[in-house]
């Protein structure tokens, strides 16, 4: 019998990455599953002061290709996600882990269908929603009706069965945030984000069976995959029949108007404003004749003056 000491156990790579987060290590660790099984929990930042966004260009793509797309038959065990990910200041809605958990409790311990048409939003909230869904004890079928971009594509990966419309899209990219500071601050932010991008690579790779290095390249390139490409690459299991979807023209008009407001807000934030200051600036315009618009976080919005607000902002 050999007297050599046993080698020390090696932590999985994703655990090491999660533990290496700068200043604010994320909670939990990714347990790498076998391909085609529902993956383990994704790490979340211990401190959510840093917000992750969807790029304005993605909102533009969603407006052009997917706004207003809805399912013909919702069903009583269906969770619809036809909104941005995270609390939405402008509509009082948004896809959040708290709301999804409440919907799952109402549905109870039975199979669930999740219908998605979302440009994404807060990546960290998307990870939280993903974690909530993966804890459900019964099978989850995800149906991508128009688009599952950015954080919404992470949510889609919680499905045991994923179906994508032939004219729908999955989009994957690296976590996108807005940061300000000197080169040391930028380096620190990049290092802080790295474990979250790596954890997403692990989930996409586990679901698709693709090489993680190839997944990382697709994320770097901000890749849109049509339904057939998503199926071919293993990100989805089947195409969703076109006759299960429709375009709600009222919802489409509302989606487009909201996206313009969100894009304007992000433009102001990109110019150096805080989100609170950007929202205050936009809300001041509601006092302009013909531009009245009220939006209270979590309380919904009065849509009657949104067209006037947009007309004023465009002029």
UniProtKB/TrEMBL annotation:
UniProt-listed Pfam families: CLP_protease
Biological process terms in GO annotation: protein quality control for misfolded or incompletely synthesized proteins
Domain of life: Bacteria
GO terms, molecular function: ATP-dependent peptidase activity; ATPase binding; serine-type endopeptidase activity
Cited InterPro entries: ClpP, ClpP/crotonase-like_dom_sf, ClpP/TepA
Cytoplasm recorded as keyword: yes
Stored SUPFAM superfamilies: ClpP/crotonase
Keyword line: Cytoplasm, Hydrolase, Protease, Serine protease
Gene Ontology annotations for the cellular component aspect, listed alphabetically: endopeptidase Clp complex
Region ranges (Disordered): 24-44
The family this protein is said to belong to: Belongs to the peptidase S14 family.
PANTHER family per UniProt: ATP-DEPENDENT CLP PROTEASE PROTEOLYTIC SUBUNIT
Identification of the protein by name: ATP-dependent Clp protease proteolytic subunit
Organism whose genome encodes this protein: Rhizobium deserti
Classification lineage: Bacteria, Pseudomonadati, Pseudomonadota, Alphaproteobacteria, Hyphomicrobiales
